[in-house]
Design goal:
- The protein has two domains: 10-252, ABC transporter type 1, transmembrane domain (ABC transporter transmembrane region fold, Up-down Bundle), CATH 1.20.1560; 274-520, 3-Layer(aba) Sandwich (Rossmann fold).
- A six-stranded mixed β-sheet has the order 6-9-10-3-11-12, with helices on both faces. The chain has a four-stranded antiparallel β-sheet with strand order 2-1-4-5, covered by helices on one side. A two-stranded antiparallel sheet has the order 7-8.
- It has helices at residues 2-39, 42-47, 50-92, 94-101, 103-141, 143-148, 152-180, 182-204, 211-252, 313-320, 343-349, 364-369, 377-386, 390-394, 413-427, 443-457, 492-498, 501-520, and strands at 274-282, 288-297, 302-307, 328-333, 336-337, 350-353, 362-363, 403-404, 431-435, 461-465, 477-482, 485-490.
- The protein is built from 18 helices and twelve strands.
- The relative contact order is 0.08.
- It is an alpha/beta fold.
Length: 521
C-alpha cells in the first residue's frame, strides 16, 4: 500500500512538472518564432505563403510540446525501469543477463531504421499540412473574389488534392509504424524468449534448474519489453516532434532579415530632406527594377512619382521605408545615410498611407492610436477632424469606441482610408509617403482629403505615387518613371510643354474622359 501511495504521488508530480515545463518552453518558443517573423524582411514573405508560417507557429510547436509531455516522460520512466530490470537480471543470473545484452543492438537498429524511414514521410506530411493551411488562408482572405467569380469548385478541388496528398503521406507513416513499432518488437521479444528457454533447456541436461529462476527470468524479460514497447510506441511522436522542430528552427535560423540599421541614437530627422543618389535595385538579384535613380526632395516639398504599372514607383517607396535593402547607390535623409538612423526614428518620422489601408481588430480609437500611450483621446479626435473623418466616426453606434472587425471589413473603402489618414496625422511625421492614397475615395471625399493633404504637406516632405495626374498637378517636382528609370522630371506645366511621356499620359487620361462624354451624348 505504501509503495502504491508513493507511486501515485510521484506520478502526479511527474505529470504536472512535465506539463509545466513543456508549456513554458512552447510559450517561449512561440514568442521567439513570432518575434523572428516580425524581424524578417518583406522578401521572405514574398516567397513564403502565410499559411505555411502559421503552421510553423501553431501546429509544429504543438508537436514539439507533445515530445516534452509524452515522449520524454516515457523515455525517462522507461530508462529507470530498464536499468532496474537489468540489475535484477545480473543478480539472478550473470551469464543469461550478458546474453540478453545482445538484444539491445537489435533494438537500436530497429529504432534507427524507423527514424530514417519515417523522417521523410513525416516531413512530407508536415509540408502537406502547411500547404493545407496556406490554401485555407488564401481562400478565407480572398472569399469575396472566389464567390464573385464562382471559383468554389476549383478551390474545393485544389484543397481536395492537397488533402489527398496529406492522407497518403499519413498512410505511409502508419504503415511504417505498423511494421517497425509493436510487431517488430514483439518478434524480438519472441526471439529473446526462445533464447532464454533454450539456455535453460540446454543447462538442464548437465544440472538441475530451479523453476523459480526460470519463471523470474521470463517475468523480468516480459517486464523488460514492456517499457521498450512504450518507448517504441512514443517513437512516432518523437519523430514528428523532431521533424516539426527542424521546421521551426529553420524559421528561427532564417537570414532573410529586414534591412539592418546602425542604431545611432544621436542622429535624428529634423528637416526631412530626402536625396536619392544613383540608386539601383533588384528583387531577384538578376533584373534591375530601379536603374540609377537620383532626385532630391527638399523640406516642405511634394515629389510625385508617376508612370505605367511596373515602372518602379512602389519600389522607390519600399527602399525609402527600409522594407528592402539596396546594394548600389545611397539614400540620404538630412544629409545622413538612411542606414544610420534607428528603426524607431525612421518609423516615427515617416508616415505611410497605402492604397489599401489595413485596420486591426479592436476599436476605431485603437486603430488611430496604434497603442501609442502618449496620444490622448483629444489628439485622436483632432487628427480625425483634420482629415474630415470625425463626422462619420461620430455617427457610429459607439463613436470612437466602435468595434472594428478583421481588416475593417464593415467600413467602406473611403472610411478605411480616412481612418488611415487620421492614424498618420496623429503620429505627426516629418515625411509623408502616399501610395495613391485617394484611389479608393469618392470624388466628394477626395476634395476634402486634398484640402487636408494641402495642410498636411506644410512643413513636411511628401513623396506621393499617383495614377491620376489630376491629384498631383500642384507637386513641386514630378518624376516620370519608365522601366525603372527617370525619363522626365519637372513641374506639371514643364512636363506638358516637353510633349513627352507625361504629356501622352495626360492626354490619355483626359482624352478617355472626353471620349466617354461623347459616347454618352
Amino acid at each position: 500500500m505504501g509503495i502504491q501511495v508513493i507511486k501515485s504521488v510521484l506520478m502526479f508530480f511527474q505529470l504536472v512538472k512535465f506539463q509545466e515545463i513543456a508549456l513554458y518552453i512552447i510559450q517561449q518558443l512561440r514568442i521567439d518564432v513570432f518575434s523572428k517573423v516580425q524581424a524578417l524582411g518583406l522578401k521572405y514573405f514574398d516567397k513564403t505563403p502565410a499559411g505555411s508560417i502559421v503552421s510553423r507557429v501553431t501546429n509544429d510547436t504543438e508537436a514539439i510540446k507533445d515530445m516534452f509531455v509524452t515522449v520524454l516522460a516515457t523515455f525517462i520512466q522507461s530508462g529507470f525501469l530498464l536499468t532496474g530490470i537489468y540489475i535484477a537480471m545480473f543478480i539472478l543470473n550473470v551469464k543469461l543477463a550478458l546474453l540478453c545484452i545482445f538484444i539491445l543492438p537489435i533494438l537500436l537498429f530497429v529504432m534507427n531504421l524507423y527514424r530514417k524511414l519515417s523522417s521523410r514521410f513525416y516531413l512530407d506530411m508536415r509540408e502537406r499540412l502547411s500547404q493545407l493551411n496556406a490554401k485555407l488562408a488564401e481562400s478565407l482572405s480572398g472569399m469575396s473574389i472566389i464567390q464573385v467569380f464562382r471559383q468554389e469548385k476549383r478551390l474545393r478541388k485544389e484543397f481536395g488534392i492537397i488533402n489527398e496528398h496529406h492522407y497518403h503521406a499519413g498512410m505511409k507513416n502508419i504503415k511504417i509504424d505498423g511494421l517497425l513499432l509493436r510487431p517488430a518488437i514483439d518478434l524480438i521479444y519472441i526471439f529473446a524468449l526462445i533464447l532464454v528457454l533454450s539456455y535453460f533447456g540446454i543447462t538442464s541436461f548437465s544440472h538441475s534448474v530451479e523453476i523459480g529462476v526460470i519463471y523470474a527470468f521470463i517475468n523480468y524479460l516480459d517486464r523488460f519489453f514492456e517499457p521498450v514497447n512504450q518507448m517504441m510506441m512514443r517513437l512516432s511522436l518523437y519523430q514528428q516532434a523532431i521533424v516539426a522542430g527542424s521546421r521551426v528552427f529553420k524559421l528561427l535560423d532564417e537570414e532573410e532579415l529586414a534591412p539592418a540599421q546602425y542604431q545611432d541614437k544621436s542622429i535624428t530627422i529634423e528637416k526631412g530632406k530626402i536625396e536619392f543618389r544613383d540608386v539601383s535595385f533588384s528583387y531577384d538579384g538578376e533584373r534591375d527594377i530601379l536603374k540609377n535613380i537620383s532626385f532630391t526632395a527638399n523640406p516642405g516639398e511634394t515629389v510625385a512619382l508617376v508612370g505605367h504599372t511596373g515602372s518602379g514607383k512602389s519600389s522607390i517607396i519600399n527602399l525609402m521605408m527600409r522594407f528592402y535593402e539596396y546594394e548600389r547607390g545611397e539614400i540620404f535623409i538630412d544629409g545622413q545615410s538612411i542606414r544610420n538612423y534607428t528603426k524607431s526614428e525612421l518609423k516615427e518620422k515617416m508616415g505611410l498611407v497605402l492604397q489599401d489601408p489595413f485596420l486591426f481588430f479592436g476599436t476605431v480609437k485603437d486603430n488611430i492610436r496604434l497603442h501609442k500611450e502618449d496620444l490622448s483621446d483629444e489628439q485622436i479626435r483632432d487628427a480625425a477632424k483634420f482629415v474630415q473623418a470625425h463626422s462619420f466616426i461620430a455617427k457610429l453606434e459607439d463613436g470612437y469606441e466602435h468595434k472594428v472587425v478583421e481588416r475593417g471589413a464593415a467600413f467602406s473603402s473611403g472610411q478605411r482610408q480616412l481612418i488611415a489618414f487620421a492614424r498618420t496625422i496623429a503620429a505627426n511625421p516629418k515625411i509623408l509617403v502616399l501610395d495613391e492614397a485617394t484611389a479608393n475615395i469618392d470624388t466628394e471625399t477626395e476634395e476634402m482629403i486634398q484640402m487636408a493633404l494641402a495642410k498636411m504637406r506644410k512643413g513636411r516632405t511628401t513623396i506621393a505615387i499617383a495614377h491620376r495626374l489630376s491629384t498631383i498637378q500642384d507637386a513641386d517636382l514630378i518624376l516620370v518613371l519608365h522601366q525603372g528609370e527617370i525619363v522626365e522630371q519637372g513641374t506639371h506645366q514643364e512636363l506638358l510643354s516637353l510633349g513627352g511621356l507625361y504629356h501622352k499620359m495626360f492626354l490619355l487620361q483626359n482624352g478617355a474622359a472626353e471620349h466617354l462624354e461623347d459616347a454618352v451624348n
